[in-house]
Design brief:
The complex is a heterotrimer of chains A (183), B (355) and C (168). With 183 residues, chain A is of the alpha/beta class. Chain A has one domain: 3-Layer(aba) Sandwich (Pyruvate-ferredoxin Oxidoreductase, domain 3). In chain A, helix 3 packs across helix 4 and helix 4 crosses helix 6. Chain B is of the alpha/beta class. Chain B has two domains: 204 residues, Rossmann fold, CATH 3.40.50; 110 residues, Rossmann fold. A seven-stranded mixed β-sheet of chain B has the order 3-2-4-5-7-6-12, with helices on both faces. Chain B has a five-stranded mixed β-sheet with strand order 9-11-10-13-14, with helices on both faces. Chain B has a two-stranded antiparallel ribbon with strand order 1-8. In chain B, helix 1 packs across helix 2, helix 1 packs across helix 7 and helix 11 packs across helix 12. Chain C has 168 residues and is α/β, with parallel strands linked by helices. Chain C is 38% helix and 20% strand. In chain C, the strands form two sheets. Chain C has a five-stranded mixed β-sheet with strand order 1-2-6-5-7. In chain C, strands 3-4 form a two-stranded antiparallel ribbon. In chain C, strand 5, helix 5 and strand 6 form a beta-alpha-beta unit. Classes of the chains: A alpha/beta (183), B alpha/beta (355), C alpha/beta (168). The interface between A and B is medium-sized, with 24 and 28 residues. Bound molecules: thiamine diphosphate (TPP). Thiamine diphosphate (TPP) sits at the interface of chains C and B.
Amino acid sequence: MNEEILIAGFGGQGVLSMGKILAYAGMMQGKEVCWMPSYGPEMRGGTANVTVIIGDKTIYSPILQTFDTIVILNQQSLIKFESAVRTGGKLFYDSNGLKTLPTRKDISIYHIPATAKSAEMQNLKIFNIMMLGGLLEKLPIVNKKFIEQGLYKSLPERAHNMIPLNMEAFSIGANIVETIHEI
Amino acid sequence: MDSNIRLMKGNEAIAEAAIRHGVDAYFGYPITPQSEIIEYLAKEDPFTKRNGMVVLQAESEIAAINMVYGAAGCGKKAMTSSSSPGISLKQEGVSYLAGAELPCVIVNVVRGGPGLGTIQPSQADYFQSVKGGGHGDYHMIVLAPSTVQEQYDFVALGFDLAFKYRTPLLILSDGAIGQMMEKVVLSEEKPRDNTVPDWAIVGKTPNRERNYITSLFLDAEVQENQNKRLQKKYTEIRQNEIRFEEFMTHDAEYLIVAYGISARISQKVVETARNQGIKLGMLRPITLWPFPSKRLVELSQQLQGILCVEMSAGQMVEDVKLAVECKIPVKHYGRMGGIIASPTEVFENFKTLFL
Amino acid sequence: MKRVLPEKYMFSYQGDGDLAAIGTGETIHTCNRGENIAIFFINNGIYGMTGGQMAPTTLPGMKSSTSPYGRNLDTMGHPLSLTEMIAQLHGTYYVTRQSVHTPANIRKCKQAIKKAFENQKLQKGLSFVEIVSNCNSGWKMPPVEANKWMEEHMFAAYPLGDIKLPKE
Ligand SMILES: Cc1ncc(C[n+]2csc(CCOP(=O)(O)OP(=O)(O)O)c2C)c(N)n1
């Protein structure tokens, strides 16, 4: 099966790079992968989203209207995409900055308080990798060791000394993810 | 993991393919959504760091295509890339390249138009690509990749065909394939090939007549002979180089015809339809010119209808209608202006149009 | 536009990527014909809109996304100063180079822009105002640092001041 994932949030939240690390990790694990960004002027500050497809089958459309899993990082994305999770699918969110919370009963919903936790650790840059940790805890489509390899591949060399910290954040993410509702 | 397997953007795949295939020169001018091609080449700096490939940012698209004309005239493997407005500017040069029978590869990462348009993906440059965007009786071979792997592979294939037939060749991509990342299996890097084709101009050469490269034939009879030569070549290309891919067509009662990113979307539509017991298949032209008309005619015997899915107001659909001579219903569905129809949307429209 | 609506004020607002690259030919000939318009040329040394590629005005050694190791004069050519070039043409009436990085410079630039339109009103021909500018996102610098870099480097290559003044 292929897992069709959407990550949606603000431009500056590292949405695209979170998708990229996931895609790299999937590829390292020998899977088929596709990373499709929304590109254009909206990337400068406005909303940004990326579709990541990972699986064992040939990937057909990188353009989708509904998804198996959606990661929501801001209010606009919640409004726009809550309904796009397929019945039986999964929705992950960080409640920071959300005025309302997801309400659907036919999907599993998980909360990852990554903004709060990374602020507590005084490093907001690790927010997205923490989200990824939470996501993969509940959706184990790629192995953690490939995330680490993916980081080596996707980060420029000068940032490689940050990888241990990122992996710590990844583990923290896996620990702080809360199940709100599971089906 | 094998270092020849990479996760790459479609645009980057084209650039890396150019270096690995031993292309001699790239001339370009930045324009979204394909600037990663020249940026990647600038970063790799193959001229000093790899195999000596020339990379030059020209002052305009017109300058770039004329640099291609010059390098191609010297028998070198030259390429350029742009997106729709820039490709329009190149059309005079393309016509000259076709007239002078010079091989080269041109990449169009299409965005929405007309005019300056949008930077979002589109397929509205089909007519320009396959009907001859410049003046005069000519064709370019047009390859339409639908995966990042094909973005990579078609550079080598493109140069092989361009040199085999001494013709400009177009890789017709779009903003979506250019910007998305997929797994690419890279070929080994080839050294650049210094053999000089016998038609190239390289300065005075002993023991042979001087070569002359031109698209100017003032004498009408000479021009007509040149036209006949070109047409003969086009007939040969039509006979030998049609490429396409079929997906679940063996028992299909309905067929989607789509290329590029629309073919990817349509594969998903076919899968959805099959899950619901609808016998839908897909034909994906890989060469848009020459067009796989013959195969469409064969398939049409078993079909009740054809849906063309294109991100345009309906351009390729005309070639499909011509191919099947409107003997079965041929419809079009597509969004314009940079909007990409989702598989769900295409499937709903397929049902309304045919079921 | 000016030829068909001569009673209207006309100006163009152009970047270096436009006026000094793809539009060089048109710019030179517009100036040479002495069209009675104003050209405002924003020189930030880079293609901003498309994400920071090298422009003809990019300085030697300056990094951009298509000159990631710095502009190499041997392979990428020299910075092009179109302003000095068009000042030589008979068709230009007033040519000046300004900036807007301090309140004093803004005042001066405003005067220059005003003069360009006054010239047009008096049917004097072409006025050309270059405004040397920064591009903090393209240069990958914080705004304050970008201004400082501009003062130190851009003004050295593109000195501020009047280049061609009307002969009285
Ligand atoms: C024919 C054509 N080629 C390329 C482009 C892409 N493009 C848009 S703006 C631009 C250059 C931007 O640089 P500049 O004129 O210096 O303005 P800036 O964005 O820096 O203000 C380019 C190359 C285009 N729009 N049309």
